[in-house]
Design goal:
Elements: H1 3-16, H2 23-35, H3 41-48, H4 64-76, E1 80-84, H5 89-105, E2 110-114, H6 127-135, E3 138-144, H7 151-159, E4 163-167, E5 184-186, H8 202-218, H9 225-244, H10 251-261, H11 270-278, H12 288-305, H13 309-316, H14 320-354, E6 365-369, H15 377-388, E7 392-397, E8 402-407, H16 414-420, E9 427-430, E10 434-439, H17 444-458, E11 472-474, H18 481-487, E12 502-509, E13 514-516, E14 522-529, E15 538-542, E16 557-569, E17 572-584
Parallel strand pairs: 1-2, 1-3, 3-4, 4-5, 6-7, 11-12, 15-17
Antiparallel strand pairs: 7-8, 8-10, 9-10, 12-14, 12-16, 13-14, 14-15, 16-17
């Protein structure tokens, strides 16, 4: 036995508690752990068994003590507090986290919420909203998931005698002097004062503030039972924000998501439960895929196609009837969003190819069109990134201004790309993988040329090739229920902790692939070992592969990259695999 085999066998036994398993099973789990760098016992144990004790104390975030003292002063002094959030899932859940904690600590607290209209106001703080909140009596505004670049808006607040606390996670200025002049700034990634973990989402930062509010109000790190239960329930909202905002699911994000997902389905918040039921997930466990592809799109559809204030209401209402009404409306809005997105993607793909933006000499896509819905262009960008593997910006040309969003690929900093074109933009903000922008129509051509030049300088043709990564190699015989259950211990899966993907050689297609689903969008294939007597086969599901049905010959010898899964139907559980890549070999 080699040293690597000893290590992987030991990994399986120690960290997954596997004392009775076949040789393949032990080596499969151990190989996956080893491929992800989990060779150190302490590191691996913490990763596989995330504990709330692994969270860094909230006061490790800058300005936390100062911000919390001011919030408590406000609600104890009967001041009006405004929680100012963003219109996406992260901002909405962050808003709900802080409001619910403040109201729990002081039921008489006067708390307003404000979420800007995506189309009319755009992202982040704006002077008109601050003026309006001040007119309503707010003496303290707490931003969540926005505000780190709101210099002018902070000045407006100061002029109105309103204290501004900024809690955010988006890319900050590089110099302290360039930050807004706020009462306090709670941000994990300030270059001059970084937190122990810098990748929290907006809801994660808000959760830390809520946690500190609870301990200070209770006068002890050990809060009372009611507050403890609320902190645990609020983890469900923090998990939804983290998954929807696609932050790395490692370190503190992993802890909050692991413990939070389990609290979504049976949340005490009636709006969350109504959302789960409306999405058809009442009978399912809630994992990152169900949040990312079922729950989050319905919340985001509200902000994209209407006003996200309704989503905040859903997260805060205690009226089951009203919650059901809002959730049902979200389902309708999401269907409308899906159709709008389909039309934008089709048109954008045609334009990108016609403009020569899909080859290796132009390594970014920048397009504008008057008919594109500005609330949907961001998610349409993601579809083009998936298809063409390059950073993409799509905008609606509204005549006097173009408003849009950008999405990027690993290895290209979208925020830095826009910063390089900052002199051409009216406004922009965001982070490495996503951003929003406003630009005058007369500058769109110059922006296109400038951003493509920046992308060409920072990306190689190899960066534009869609790559499928896999953890290790295995045989079909290694995929059994016990090993798949063990691999699920690596959940929650997401950015920087993707689902396990395994390369399997020596396969052949048993029969012909079959289309399935609406409009025959997906494929079902039966895979078996090529060697005689090699054992059972397995069903493979290839999502979105329907168009390739005629390109895969029946009985073809193949290699595949797959994710092994368990599928339960009518009470029976079977091993299946999700197909990610397929190589057809010569006979």
């Amino acid at each position: 036995m080699t040293q690597t085999e000893e290590i992987t066998r030991g990994l399986t036994r120690r960290w997954l508690g596997r004392t009775e398993a076949n040789e393949y099973d032990m080596h499969l789990v151990g190989r996956v752990l080893a491929s992800r760098g989990l060779l150190d016992e302490q590191v691996a144990s913490s990763f596989l068994n995330p504990s709330m004790s692994h969270l860094h104390p909230p006061e490790a975030l800058p300005d936390m003590d100062r911000a919390v003292s001011r919030i408590i002063e406000a609600f104890e002094g009967d001041e009006v507090i405004a929680i100012y959030g963003d219109y996406d899932v992260d901002g909405i859940t962050a808003t709900a986290i802080l409001v619910r904690m403040i109201r729990a600590l002081n039921p008489d607290a006067r708390v307003l919420t404000y979420v800007p209209h995506r189309l009319d106001e755009g992202y982040g703080l704006n002077p008109q909203a601050i003026e309006s909140l001040a007119d309503q009596g707010a003496s303290l505004i707490v931003s969540v998931d926005c505000g780190i670049t709101a210099v002018a808006e902070a000045d407006v607040a100061a002029q109105r005698g309103v204290d501004l606390i900024i809690t955010d996670h988006h890319t900050p200025p590089t110099e302290r002097a360039a930050c807004p002049r706020a009462h306090s700034i709670v941000h994990p990634g300030l270059p001059w004062q970084p937190a122990p973990f810098t990748e929290l989402c907006g809801a994660g930062v808000a959760y830390k503030v809520a946690w500190k509010l609870a301990t200070v109000s209770c006068g002890s790190d050990r809060v009372d039972e009611t507050t403890r239960r609320l902190l645990l329930d609020l983890l469900g909202l923090a998990a939804m924000g983290a998954v929807a905002d696609v932050v790395p699911l490692v370190d503190e994000n992993r802890v909050m998501t692991r413990w939070g997902l389990g609290r979504v389905k049976h949340s005490p918040f009636v709006g969350v439960r109504a959302l789960v039921e409306a999405a058809g997930l009442g009978g399912d466990d809630i994992d990152t895929e169900r949040v990312g592809f079922r729950l989050a799109p319905q919340i985001n559809a509200c902000g994209r196609m209407g006003h996200a204030a309704a989503a905040v209401e859903l997260m805060l209402t205690d009226d089951p009837v009203r919650a059901e009404q809002i959730a049902a409306e979200f389902v309708k809005l999401n269907r409308h969003r899906q159709e709008t997105e389909r039309l934008i993607v089709a048109q954008a793909c045609e334009m990108a190819e016609a403009e020569g933006m899909t080859g290796t000499d132009r390594r970014a896509i920048v397009l504008a069109h008057p008919d594109w819905h500005p609330g949907v262009v961001g998610i349409a960008c993601s579809r083009l990134v998936d298809r063409y593997a390059r950073p993409t910006i799509l905008m609606q040309n509204q005549g006097e201004i173009c408003v849009g969003s950008g999405r990027s690929i690993d290895g290209y900093n979208m925020h830095a790309g826009l910063a390089s074109c900052g002199h051409l933009l009216d406004r922009f903000g965001g982070h490495t993988m996503a951003a929003g922008l406003r630009v005058e129509p007369s500058n769109v051509r110059a922006l296109t040329d400038s951003l493509i030049k920046h992308a060409n300088e920072n990306l190689t043709p190899d960066d534009l090739v869609r790559t499928v990564h896999y953890d290790c190699e295995a045989r079909l015989e290694e995929f059994d229920r016990r090993s798949i259950d063990a691999l699920e211990k690596l959940a929650p899966f997401g950015r920087e902790n993707p689902r396990v993907q395994i390369r399997v050689r020596g396969l052949r297609l048993n029969g012909a692939p079959r289309t399935m689903g609406q409009q025959a969008k997906h494929l079902s294939l039966d895979l078996v070992g090529r060697d005689a007597g090699s054992g059972r086969g397995v069903r493979a599901v290839a999502w979105g592969w329907g168009e390739h049905v005629g390109q895969i010959p029946p009985g073809a010898p193949v290699e595949a990259i797959v994710t092994p899964k368990l599928n339960t139907w009518n009470g029976a559980t079977k091993v299946e695999v999700e197909l990610h890549d397929l190589m057809i070999l010569s006979s």
